[in-house]
Amino acid sequence: MYICICNSVTDSDIREAAAGGARSLDAIQEQLGVASCCGSCACAAEQILNEDGPCRGVAVQRAMLAPLTD
Question: What pLDDT was estimated at residue 64?
């Protein structure tokens, strides 16, 4: 899928660059030209970069379930 329309950069291009060591928006901007024109793709590009990184989700508390009784 195209992420940066201005420079015809796909999500696969970003993942390939990340696998080759480009692990920041600055690095993929330099390598691929992502977010160097209008900038509207910067957020999507960063999300793709962070997909394979450490989990940054929020902690979720699980409720204890009690067995149903008659």
Answer: 55
Give 2-51's CATH code, choosing from 3.30.450.20, 3.90.660.10, 3.40.630.30, 1.10.10.1100: 1.10.10.1100
Q: What is the largest CA-CA distance in the chain?
A: 66
Q: What is the DSSP string of 3-70?
A: EETTTTEEHHHHHHHHHTT--SHHHHHHHH-TTSSS-TTHHHHHHHHHHTS-------PPPPPPPP--
In this prediction the pTM is: 0.71
Give dist(CA 32, CA 26) in Å, integer: 10
Helix (H) / strand (E) containing 2: strand 2-4
